[in-house]
Amino acid sequence: MTVQECRDAFFELLRHNVAAAQSRVPDGFANLGRQAANAGLGLIDVVQLCEEVQARLGREQPDLTLDQFAKGAANSMSETLAGYYSVVREATAIPPDPLHDIARQYTATAMSHQIGVWDWDLQTNDLIIDPSLKEMLGYQDHEIANRLEAWSELVHPDDRDRTRMQSQASLGSDDRSFEFEQRLLHKKGQAFWFVCRGRTIRDENGVAVRLLGTNTNVTAARLVAQEIREGVDRYRALIETVPYGIQEVSLEWVVLYCNSACDRMLGYQRGERIGRSVLDLLPTPEEVDVFCQYFQVSIDEQLPPQPLITQHQTANGRIFDVQIDWDYKRDANRDIVGIISVTTDITERRRYEETLRTARDELERRVVERTAELEAIFDNTQFLIAYLDAEFNFLTANRAWSDASVAGTCPRFATGQNFFDVYPDDELRTVFQSVIASSEPHSEWAKPFINSLDAEQGTAYWNWTLAPVKGRTGNVVGLVMTLLDVTHRVLADETIRKSEERLQAAQEMAHLGNWDWNLETSHIDWSDEMFRIFEVDVERFNGSFLRFLEVVHPDDRKVVSDTFANAMENNGRYSIDYRVVLDSGVEKFLHGQAQVTFDESGKAASISGTTQDVTERKQAEEELRQSESMQRALLEAIPDMIFRVGQDGTLLDFIPAADTRPYLPPSDFLGKKMEDVLPHDVGRLCAESHLRAAETGEVQVIEYRLDVDGTPHDYEARSLVGAKDDILSIVRDVSAERQAEERSRRHRDELAHVTRLSTMGEMATGIAHELNQPISGIASYAAACLMMLESAPGTPHAEKISEIVGKIEAQALRAGEIVRRMRKLVVRRASMYHAVDLLDAIREVLALVDSDVAQTGVEIRIAVSDNVPCVLADRIQIEQVILNLVRNAIEVMDAARIPEPVLEISVSVPTDEMVNVEVADNGPGIASADVGRIFEQFYSTKNNGMGMGLSISRTIIEAHGGCLYMGNTAASGTMFRFTLPVIERMSM
Amino acid sequence: MTEDPTVFVVDDDQIIRDSLATLLSTAKIRTEMYSDALEFLDRFDPERAGCLLLDVRMPGMSGLELQRHLSKMEVPMTTIILTGHADVSMAVGAMKTGAADFIEKPFRADDLIRRVRQAMGQNIEARRIWNRKRELQGRVDTLTPREKTVLALIIEGNPTKTIASQLGTSFNTVRNQRTSIMRKMDTESVVDLVRIMTAFGEQAEKN
User: Which residues pair with A496 in a beta bridge?
Assistant: First the structure.
């Protein structure tokens, strides 16, 4: 659309609008405005043509009423501009600039009826003024008279003359209309510009009878125009002052305009380049071609303008780089008529660009590096990192996370998945939401996670942090979630805690406390056990060295403080035993160890140590020491010597015995070999025994005899393997025992011998006795016969009979002699009477029958009264008697198979003169038939007994002046009793 | 006691008893036989003079025990131990228990008879002395306690005057007491009295 077309269209619309007396035609003017905008008409053009159209209408239709005209005109303008403006805004979307603001104001002004009409009747001089005009000037209708004078008052004093002249001119001329500008004064005093337009109404004579017109408040428009002018001026100034070179070039490459910056840039005088070819600027022909081609193509194809980088040369011939920003210059028909360009010396820019590029490359390189680093960190950190958006959707995770989720120790997500779809946890969601709301990170330590999908995994522990990521505006756009597996640390902590607990417990059990003393701050730290040891309350703890010394035992104080001072100065550590006396009075033994830490200057900085309550141990040690010394004393007191002999026979060690002397003094045999110090056969015996002990591991017992100081001693040696494969030999002097054994053996032999002898003797006696009776009888009878024959000599053959009987008597006596001699042959050992302790004799006898007792299982009971005196007796003979009785009893009980045979021997003192000995058994007893005969010789109830025992026993007892007889026992069994005369009382 | 002294034989052997009986009766010696000691103790009369022939070896109570019993009696008994076996210890033991003698079987008859006669003679003598003692004792028993005291003093050789002053009595009292004593004791002179009492005292000591 051209301007003319627009003008015409507008006119038509206005005319129609006014004629139709409608206040507005829907969208008509607006459309027109839009069309105008789309046609590229300028805003000023539109405003101008609107005014032109309105004036034209006024001229061509004089019969329009003012009212009609006014309304239509006002609305038309505003709506047109509104339409125009709307398109402009749409097309460019640029924020309103001052020009548009002014246009808007203008529009507003127009829409608020800024046109007033007037009607001047030349004949009456009535000037009817549109109330809206009055209103524009701040007056109410009645305030201004509708008279010329009143109107004249409104005109600005400076414009009155011109107004009058104009009016007169229009009256006088043939022109039917006029237009001029004037200022009218507002009630408040401000001057507003109006365009006064009118037309002259003439009568048939051509005399002006009426003037009719509008006053349009163009203050805003004038302002706009002024602004525009100023703007244009500014624009021009801007053009001239900008540092860019601005040129306008025709299609023939002729420079039509060139601002001063351009001239300066190119080194030309002002205006020198006008009319010259722009191609002069291009340094090389090739560039000229490029330049021309580029623009030509653009023009031909109506391409959108793109900046061109090329080179120019100055008037001096210096070549430099330029950027050309250009646009088409179009005429009113929108045809391209030229190029307007902004040329910028980009040399600096190039440099900057180079630097920038270098920097950018560097930056890129660094970014790449950094990214690689970050990626390396991101993917190789042990932290599990995930990035979520603000709706908790999963965006990305690092490798550690995906590895862990594969292993099942953390939730597995996929990009885009919502966190809480996979891991529903309302509490956690609340936390996430609060992080977003507060923009504050949230972290938790050692949160347990149990994989609900795989219960076998057990409980893992995580430190997790949720940090908000803020966007440029400061609101939270995402979340970074970091997890760190601290399972093992938790477990380790647990282990440490348990270990510390155990340490505590161990300290408690061992009564061991530890302490730290910072010498600089004088602060002392005590473990729990320390408080227990010193019986101090934690709250009342007032640790100081002096206080400590106070509880140390007075006798130990000096040692303790000296040791301490020494450690502080010299070696830095100490170990000391000391006593403390606590407030409660309790005394304890303590063992303390400490280490001093020195600073760089060598001064003591801190001390840490342990203190142990060793009271119990000390007591135990004391007891042990006492026990050991007792043991030692015991060992030395025992009569056995102990030798330690090496495997090669070297005598290594010797523990002496109390009453026994070794073969040689220790200094003579220690360190030497056995074979060198002992007699050959003894040495060999010992060596063999040691060898056997080493081989079998069993105790070997040997006996040997050595002469010590000329006296033979018998030794019993027990050898066994000791520690370190040495042989321990325990040697006892058994000489006395051996001798006693020898005596005992001889005693027994003697007893046996005597028994045998006495048996024989008794037999002999028995026989003798038996023989003597008849022999005695024969002798007596013979003697009696002889005597009777003597007293009766007349008896026939008295002499012969006497002779024969005498022979009988003689033979009888001879027989008796023989018997006597025979008895003498079996000599009974001479009785040796001395003091005999019956209990000893009994014991001796029991020793002899030990094996019989063991075999038959007889229980022996001995009952001896107090103060049994010794008896005067032959010991061997008494033992014979006891032996006989005991043996009889045992044999009887065994033969009768008594289940629990008991043999009771009792010794009592019934009177001062005699001692009673009773031997009783619980056997079958003696049959009444045998009772009278048991003491007879050759009478026995035993199958193979000789029957001598009891008679011999009786003989012996009687010889001692005692009696042997059988008594009764309460239970069944037999009891024999014999008595012996007491020796004069002697104390044993 | 006009009876002849008797030999009491205690022996469990029948042959011995018989042979002894035969022998002794042939020697005109009166005998009585016992086969065991308890029987003897039951039956014998201590007033009878004589001697015992005891066999050592007897069941029940042995000869030595019987001997001990007898030695405890007041009446003097004289015993001869018979034994089939003899040794010094037995002999000593027998003598210690108070036996008068000790004979070993077989014995010579004349030896036995001689010893038996000797023993019997001993016994008679012993009895006579013992009876005398008994009689004297009986007489002494008739003395009043005072008289016994005076008697003792007289025997010591104290004159009447001394006795009187020692006892705190008068001369006459003592003299009267002396007369009473001599009458009761059946002596005529102080000398006799002293002699009798002395012998009695010795006897008493012996016993």
Answer: none
